[in-house]
Amino acid sequence: MSNEAAVQVLNLTHNYGDRKALDGVSFEVRRGEIFALLGPNGGGKTTLFRILSTALTPSGGTAKLMGFDIREQANDVRRRIGIVFQNPSLDKKLTVLENLRYHGQLYGLRGTALTDRVSEMMDRLMIADRAGNLVETLSGGLARRVELAKGLLHRPEVLILDEPSVGLDPGARRDLWLYLQKLREKEKVTILVTTHLVDEGDRSDHVLVLNLGKVVAIGTPESLKREIGGDVIAIASREAEKLSAAILQRFSVKPTIVNGSLRVEKEQGHTFISHIVDAFPEMIDTVSLSKPTLEDVFIARTGHRFWEDQ
Fold first, then answer.
1. For residue 94, which phi and psi values (nearest 5 degrees)?
2. String of b and e for 33-52 (b: at least 16 CB within 10 Å)?
3. Residue 26 pLDDT
4. pLDDT at 305 over 80
5. Which site from 144, 188, 202, 280 is most exposed, i.e. has the minimal number of CB atoms within 10 Å?
6. List of residues 6+ apart from 77 with CB closer than 8 A
7. How far is residue 218 from each of residues 25, 79, 161, 238, measured CA to CA in Å?
8. Which residues contact 194 (CB under 8 A, 6 or more apart)?
9. Is pLDDT of 173 > 50?
């Protein structure tokens, strides 16, 4: 394992009966970076999360966190990771303070050390004024902050979060990601996030795109989007097949048809749009131009839109 790698996954597979949830997944996460596992629901993200958090034993392959094998050294892995689940894991009938103290005790914190660490985390996540509040009375954003405080109490080297933005409004999502970035920068915690939100992949240092258990793409968001090569042109037409054939014949450019719309990747897209509209005005309903996104990377690699697997 590379000294720079906090997480190393090699040829990981997992089956649920006849269904292959993970199919030869391999990647590394460098220490002190934010790494996103991006993909549609059913793509394999949650299975991978469960394996890396030692909650599930893989069918095949290996994975190490901070040099410790998830099969042979699971207890060592657990001591070094913090986990934030997609579904709330707090006791709603306890207060914020009671939840944090109980969790700290599970990790062996006692007395002054426990009191000081709980106070530190409540201050850092700006929930100290909610210490006496029952969890069931908190908003989604506040409850997520308590979940983060809980996951960080024992000073983990790797923080693993499964769909952390689920149920949060845009403001709470923004606050969450600002805190994750500060955590990475100030404390050098390695952060691994599963998400189905394309913009959260953009906020990460590296992103791995999963679809149907396979790695579709991996790299920095910028490098992956550069692979698209130019602008992305989307054309709505009631005669999509006919228009596609006409564009291919006229301009030697083959559009991709996705959900009944045509998609073309082209440098100087605004110029190409004018040529298409001039050539086939009666066949075009609407046309739009955009810069490449991670969803465009997904389309280019799979031939369908990100949300078709929902």
1. -105, 160
2. bbbbbbbbebbbbbbbbbbb
3. 97
4. no
5. 188
6. 54, 65, 66, 68, 69, 70
7. 11, 28, 19, 35
8. 36, 37, 45, 46, 48, 49, 86, 161, 162, 163
9. yes
The pLDDT of 70-96, averaged and rounded, is 92
Q: Highest mean pLDDT range out of 121-125, 191-195, 299-303?
A: 191-195
Tell me the C-alpha to C-alpha distance, in Å, between residue 89 and each of 83, 92, 109, 150, 166.
Answer: 10, 9, 19, 10, 14
Amino acid at 83: I
CB 3 within 8 Å of CB 55: no
Positive or negative: CA dihedral 155, 159, 163, 165 = positive
Amino acid present at 61: G
Whether the pLDDT of residue 88 is over 80: the answer is: no
